[in-house]
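Quick one - inputs below.
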Amino acid sequence: MDVRALLKDAGLAAFVAFMLALPMIGFQTVDVSGGHGITVVTRFGDVAITVALVLVGRIALGLLDNTSWRLPILLVSAAIAIGMPFVKNPYPVITNLSVMAAAVIAIRATWLYFGLSAVVERDEGNRLGDAAAFVGRWFGPVFVIFAVIFPFLPTTSRYLLDLGILVLTYVMLGWGLNVVVGLAGLLDLGYVAFYAVGAYSYAIIAHEFGWSFWACLPLAGLFAAFFGVILGFPVLRLRGDYLAIVTLGFGEIIRIVLLNWSSFSGGPNGISGVPRPSFLGMPFTANPPEGTTSFHQFFGLDFSPEHRIVFLYYLILALALVTNSFTLRIRKLPIGRAWEALREDEIACRALGINPTNTKLTAFAIGAMFAGFAGAFFATRQGFISPESFAFIESAVILAIVVLGGMGSQIGVVLAAVLLIGIPEFFRELAQYRMLAFGAAMVGIMIWRPRGLLAHRDPSIRLPEAAKAGADD
Amino acid sequence: MTRTPLLQVDHLTMRFGGLVAVNDVSFTAYDREITAIIGPNGAGKTTVFNCLTGFYNAPVGRLKLTGARGEFLLERMDGFRIAQQAGVARTFQNIRLFPRMTVLENLIIAQHNVLMRASGYTLAGLFGLKSYRDAERDAIDLARLWLDRLGLTSQADWEAGNLPYGSQRRLEIARAMCTRPVLLCLDEPAAGLNPRESAELRELLIEIRDQHKIGILLIEHDMSVVMGISDHIVVLDYGRMIAGGTPAEVRSDPAVIRAYLGEEETDQIPPEVAGDLHQEGRI
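Output:
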């Protein structure tokens, strides 16, 4: 083992950590009591701790290259990850950071010790019968069952339920964008525009005409799909970076129009008082209006504001599952295969007589339609919408979910949405280190799974088994 | 056997800026025959193909296809319609399979238009109607036929990009055949093949001509393939057609020999130019 190279490498990592930590952690501005401005507090102790953690962690990662060190490191890091929360320690930050770092090292050690990386590398070659497919096959049903019973778990609080709704919204958006980016290979940076179209169509129609959520839902999808086609036409000839720029512009156009067209969209004030959804016409209110029965009265329950949250949860779960099953189904139909073929090679598609215009436009329209449904849901859940909710960062997050999940992978989108939306929430107690954990997770995924968490592609069609058996004589 | 014209190319001209890539080329390709287009590099062979298959719009000339599906003027049609309606299928000089899709999927996508109609433009397919399931089974059967013919059945679920090079070339031909074309255009199908694979290719092309009863238009540098299987050869040089005829006629044509081997009299180069070239070390 090359001790010098190892120390040099770890020293370099520690140096980078020091350079980053000194300005970001080392100095903190605090209010001077009495409102006389602010003053700087130095926290060089925290800097030293961070650098030391990076140094130790980097040495541990380096030692993992050596087979004989893998088991000890696995045990030690697992012990730290599990034991640290029980050790009394004046700085919660140290506990959190070291647990996280130790957990990452433990995962890495497990990976290497049990030879899982060999499985994955084989999978990069021919990608049949690999670990990702296994995860995909079992994770799907388990996830659905978990999602269905989630609201009734004893540990589920109102906060967790809200978080679940948020994650599911992004899962649905991710699945919708997956049609455009993952299947058809059209890099769309303005996806949030269709989300906005859906949200505003519901809010405005419900406001102006008093239509119910269920009547507006298909309309919201239809309008969004229509806007998808409108975006699709000018970008038919564009690919890759150029397409990304135009879609980015389109997203901003929609947002800016909503921001400035006050008489139509309420401008920056948005639209408030968007009607809440009802359960078969029964509202979720304590005192229903004259002539209607509210949900809790009909079922003889005590009134609880959580009923509506649970209902919203199941609503978005159902919408997301519809999106998923539709996508899975359409992938096996000619149009879905044509999308994937278009992603692979547009010129070959034309030579085979596939109409690239129609194929692209349907991809845009269907992707946008799902965003429209999600948008209508968002509007009814929030009860208030404004252009702020549809900024570019939303498009970026949705795209990140699709890319991190593994382009075209439905389960990957779920995992990535849980990670990307869940991690910042779970690490709320880390306060200002929260986004650090978020960034670290993204970097980690891209290092270890450069093609996404689950970059596995199931063939859309297979030969009947009998036919294959006959050929392998 | 009487020869039926399948494709009539009349006065085809294609310019890129000042460069005349194809200059007034006219020839006829007959049904159930293999017509080869040969010529040195840069002679305009692939440009002729690109005009034929709608990748370029030729400003001058007429491309008339009279096939089983009717009569079409290809120069007036959109790229994808030429394959979809007129029934002209092509392969590419640098293979253009769908590399991350499986071998079987490649062959099924080629039947997109048939399946699209059968799936009622997706609606009938979404609900899994019987008419669509039948069409899909037929599509698999056709693909199966080609997989068996190419010996790729056991690799049907492989990603096409992972196949050996020779198999990829043949798969691309099979994919083009799955569109059920009336004219198959092959752009250097023997490029990069070893002698054994190239012999297999010759067999495959003859089989396509005789059993599937369609016309083949072939660009090729491998003379063993061209001379061995072509019924008719068209020779291009600098965008002009310099010869045409049977393999035996073309082989002995002085213009062809000159195009391939160069002028015999080197003293045609003016002395001052020859001097410059000599100084630059080119001669």
